[in-house]
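Hi support team,

I submitted a single chain yesterday and got back a structure, but I'm not sure I'm reading the token output correctly. Could someone confirm the output below corresponds to the sequence I sent? I've pasted both exactly as they appear in my results page.

Thanks,
R.
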Amino acid sequence: MFDDESAEYLVVVNGEEQYSIWPAGRELPVGWTAEGGSRSREECLDHIERVWTDMRPKSVREALENAGTVAAQGSRMVLSQLVDADELKAMSPEELRDMLANLDDDVIYSEDEEAVEPTPGTDKA
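Hi R., thanks for writing in. Yes, this is the structure output for that exact sequence:
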């Protein structure tokens, strides 16, 4: 049904922004909407290849983006305790990224994996 080169198809997309083709003239599956009019199978597949550049479902992309934002906010809070606020604001993204990359090397963990604040003047354990 989906490999008939002479049939007309629709490009369909669901709520997770995942794409597929669907035979024109058939009722769309629940949760899917047509994107544009009917066209050849090849045209539909070419369109999908152009627009669907990130295969991850929308919910996964958003969760990862939100996790990155939360991590960045938490890192900024930690950094704000280590670095003057004005200095932190003046940092470029690259400087901030480098500082964050090196930050974990400066953290000491107890046996129960809790971060331990180092005592000034002592070496890391």
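A quick pointer for reading it: The longest strand covers residues 8-14. Let us know if anything else looks off.

Best,
Support desk
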